[in-house]
Give the backbone structure.
Amino acid sequence: MFEIEAIPTLETNYVWMLTGSGQRAYIVDPGEAQPVLERLQQNQTELAGILITHHHWDHTDGLGEILAHTPVPVYGPSSVPEVSNPLEDGDSLVLDEITFTVMAVPGHTLDHIAYFAPAKTTQAPVLFCGDALFAGGCGRLFEGTPEQALHSLKKLTRLPAETQVYCAHEYTLANLRFARQVEPGNAALAQRLARDEQRLASTGTTLPTTMVEELATNPFLRCTQASVKSQMEAHCGGTLTSETEVFAALRRWKDVS
Ligand SMILES: [Zn+2]
């Protein structure tokens, strides 16, 4: 059994902290050091390792200061200089009582990986997916193609429906408001937006989300739905002949909205 808590950093980022037995903590994507070091001290936990999803500065800039303070293994893609234990698609990563499977999810960046741990008796499956998948959206395509990003997202959607999804930014409300433009008739989406507005106001976060909820409300995972395809064709003023074309058009629209 391990606890997962959010450490808000920078403007919209979350560093996720997992604390297992023996008060050993692991963190994901430290874009900033101070909030992490303070939380470790507050919780009286010992940092045991760091997981990185991709090379962007807002996920890695805290590494130098944290490692100077506590030298621990850094797991992640080999593109990140501070990574001591490089990981690739399909690798297993055993961290005390939790075993993650590493999934390559290129698109936002080419080096992007995600970490999935299946259910245990007392814990739902968990996914740490950085900027590959967001609550109600997905990361911008800085390096990969729409084909790659769509393929990566499809891999994630094949995870168990009850998977708890821990992404790296609090972008949920903006994403869901955009999603409402894409699917104005989606009742589950309208309900989710109202609920997440409440949730953010009362708890300070909308995360984690779940895969089942993303499948019902995240337009980037719904490119084969007739409602999404027809809306995108209306937006583009032409026929979109493949799921990839719908996805690419959706991503372009979000980029400028
Ligand atoms: Zn990023």
Notes: The two ends are 41 Å apart (CA to CA). The chain has a mean pLDDT of 96. The pocket of zinc ion is lined by residues 54, 56, 108, 131, 139 (CB under 6 Å). The chain is about 35% helix and 25% strand.
